[in-house]
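User: Structure tokens for both sequences below?

Assistant:
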Amino acid sequence: MNGEPSDQRAAQLSKYVETSTEIYRLVGEAFAGAAQRALSNAKAAYEILSTPYASRSFDGVYAEACDRGVKLVELARTELETRSTNAAKLAKDLSARGDLLRETQAQLVSEALRNGMSSLKPVIEAQVDEAKSFTKLMDAASGSSVGAVI
């Protein structure tokens, strides 16, 4: 053996670890971004709501309240748009990385099974040789053709 399967396995394992790390990084960045946006939006909403009314008349307070409502609705709309865009991007990235991860896992399992089967080949051959020698011994001992059955 020239060590090629081991090198290939190491490369596949490295690819698997790298892809897994990339997935965790993407999820971590998504959560960090969402938390940062939530704090930013809370601060913006607080600033909108905590600003004192400039007018004391009913019409002035009503107009300012409507303006504040529009600002809050716009803030919420922008956040929902950003969330949906980021969620779609994250889903696309995770899907691509997941496909790569699944492919790498399949290659690693295939390689492990191939190595396991190649390791069993000498054992199977030894068992076949043992069975042949046993049938020859039985043929010689009984004078019948037991080997023809096996």
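Moving on to the next sequence.
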Amino acid sequence: MGTMRALALGVVLASAAFPAAILAFAASPAAGQVTQFEIDNLRAQQEAAQRRAIDLSNQLTAAEAQRQADQAVRALELQQRLPPRLPTPSPAAQPEAGPPAAAPSVVQIPDALLADSNAKVRAATTPHR
């Protein structure tokens, strides 16, 4: 990875040097001898260097993303292979041993009360004529 980063940095620095070279070349005393072809050639070289720098940067980013994805896959595979870790209860969290809890009693309603409630419901739901 370090070599790709160094190479990308070198390409970026080289592409940044092209505009200065064009200006220095055009400002020289022999400026009348510079042809448009030479200037266009230098511009094309600069654009190609910029494209290479972008390509290298993209490759570096893709390689880093792939590395992170591979690392995540390895972590998941390891997690699946290991037995689950259950928390161990602390001694302070243990309930005290005491008498067993009483079973909840069933609610009992007297028959007379149920009959009275039933009569009220029937009276409220029957149509009045």
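User: Anything stand out in the second?

Assistant: The chain has three helices and no strands.
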